[in-house]
Amino acid sequence: MPALPKNPNSSSRLLADSAEAERRLLEAEERLREAIEELQRRQRTAASGQHPPCDHADDSCVANAIGNLCQSFLLSYGVRVGIGILLRAFKLARRQSYSSLLDLKQLVSEKDLIVREEACRVGLLFGGFTGSYHALRCLLRKLRKKETPVNAILAGSIAGLSVLALDDSNRRRTLALYLLARVAQCAYNSAKSKNKFHLWGSHWRHGDSLLFALACAQVMYAFVMRPESLPKSYQDFIQKTGPVAAPVYKAVRENCRGSPVDVASISAYLYRRGKSNNVKLEEFPSIIPCSVIHPDKNSCLAHNANAASATFRKTFPLYFSLTFVPFVVLHLQKFMDTPARTFWLAVKGAVRSTTFLSAFVGIFQGVICMHRKIASKDHKLVYWVAGAIAALSVLLEKKTRRSELALYVLPRAGESLWWPYFVHAWEESCTT
């Protein structure tokens, strides 16, 4: 006689697990049956010479394309306007004008919130792409009477012309380079999954961080030594984020190249800082001293700590807006269900990303100051090494974000690396 289970709860748990397993099996069988029927229906349609049916059975092709266009336009427009309003609110709060946060004239006025045209262009970019992509896929499906990856490639290529909605050629180039990096990543991942090709070190745990470090090293080197190889917006972002003035970088660049330093420009900068009498200036110094790099602070440690702190204060509103607004717009129902949790996750993510960027700035400046403590002559490779070391701060970011950051910086690094050779070739062609 079999022994009865000692615990009646374990018996009921076994029965519940068995019933759950049987239910899942029945659901799997039903899905398999539906898939077989769909496959047979498509085969009959292909044999009859008709075009395969579209995936939007309830709507016409035109209605589906217009619906996707409107939805993408409204979402992207809402994200851009929401980010602009939140940044404007941070700006008013920083001025301690808290009552103005309730004044719509100050918060969303045409004078102070100039994002409407840009939001429309962003909306036309994404809305135009999705709408035209779906319309072209339906059209190609009917014309070619079959559904193949070629349809998606052709539709995506033509729909990509929606990038012309952006009026700034630099922004179009930035988007194109980022998408090109994503395409390369997809192709590499596909080849790697099929054991056709893989790069040395691709299995490393922190390979994405290494890629980010190499890319940042090149970008920071280009910013100091060849700023013309970077877009103006990229230069402005790095310049505003860091604590060193543009005339100082210019003097460092001239010094490393062996050219005479613009003493008048440096003197004017130090005069504005009230430190013109404390620094001895030469046209051919061996190195630009720390007293010129950070004239407001005598201590390098205090300067670097202040630089990191200032970067945190300047960039936290931006990172919070980029984290909070897209989630609210794209996942409104989740936000309505758990607003406090969404707000907390946005704050935590923004603090983490801002800490990473602040650490990057502090470490980069720290390496430059340390070099001046142990060396008497400057070298341009110092700034490449400083960028690589500072980029290790990306380890503060989440693992999933590191590869995204690397793919964002990598195209700019490649562009800045290629630019000097292009200029040299162009100059040679002009002289011959």
UniProtKB/TrEMBL annotation:
Protein's UniProt name: Mitochondrial import inner membrane translocase subunit Tim17/Tim22/Tim23 family protein isoform 3
Keyword Phosphoprotein: no
Transmembrane protein 135 N-terminal domain mapped to chain residues: 294-417
Transmembrane spans: 316-333, 345-369, 381-396
Taxonomic superkingdom: Eukaryota
Keyword RNA-binding: no
Swiss-Prot/TrEMBL keywords: Coiled coil, Membrane, Transmembrane, Transmembrane helix
